[in-house]
Amino acid sequence: xxxxxxxxxxxxxxxxxxxxxxxxxxxxxxxxxxxxxxxxxxxxxxxxxxxxxxxxxxxxxxxxxxxxxxxxxxxxxxxxxxxxxxxxxxxxxxxxxxxxxxxxxxxxxxxxxxxxxxxxxxxxxxxxxxxxxxxxxxxxxxxxxxxxxxxxxxxxxxxxxxxxxxxxxxxxxxxxxxxxxxxxxxxxxxxxxxxxxxxxxxxxxxxxxxxxxxxxxxxxxxxxxxxxxxxxxxxxxxxxxxxxxxxxxxxxxxxxxxxxxxxxxxxxxxxxxxxxxxxxxxxxxxxxxxxxxxxxxxxxxx
Length: 302
What we know:
Blueprint: H1 5-11, H2 15-18, E1 21-25, H3 30-40, E2 46-50, H4 58-61, E3 64-68, H5 73-82, E4 87-91, H6 96-101, H7 107-115, H8 121-134, E5 138-139, E6 154-155, H9 163-181, E7 187-191, E8 194-198, H10 204-215, E9 220-224, E10 238-239, H11 241-249, E11 252-259, E12 263-264, H12 267-276, E13 280-285
Parallel strand pairs: 1-2, 1-4, 2-3, 4-5, 9-11, 10-12, 11-13
Antiparallel strand pairs: 6-13, 7-8, 7-9
């Protein structure tokens, strides 16, 4: 897998440097892919796995793994220090509702939560990233080892969006970028240039399912974007074959994503499935934050 020269350089360094990489693992396949990608570069990662989210299967592939609960920030940092980690990757989703309903914060996280100006997921994770940096642990781009899974701009499937779909996509991109800038969600579902559903904390699949119920059989277009000034260290938009299967079952005929800021898990299988389901997929260049209306960067970062 081709990655940056910096990573290739690190892969050639001594064992001590290799031991300094860590992975903070949430749910899904993302952590597995990061481990595989890093290993292909000769890097072995110490894994800090979140009990409420990460798959037990990580035990089978990680050489060094520690399990912590969602609110145990102090323990996670101590373990990273014990492992000698100076660079870390966050990979895998932590469900928004768990962060704000199931979390039992330790003293360090409680202090952090109290200091937050806004109680949303991005503000919290961004603050955690700053705490890690203060502790001498650099949080790096979560897609660093997965560049082949990040699409460039253009039509990704055999079929391009037709005239109706292209009009819905154009409308949907405007709506999606607006709500992403307000830190509401990153996905909208469109039918006949009307917004049928907007993602909040429920996630993409449930948003699409809700749109299908509302649209009652109308063909749908899904637009999933990154946030203005997307921090590629965490919360990167992700899609996999399961997402395509769910969209097909919900009457979706086209999908638009941001180029260079979206991860397509099992990319070849995903695109093959989209072709089989006759779902057109196109990636669009995301505007720089200052290009958005009013030059505002949105509310997703401090």
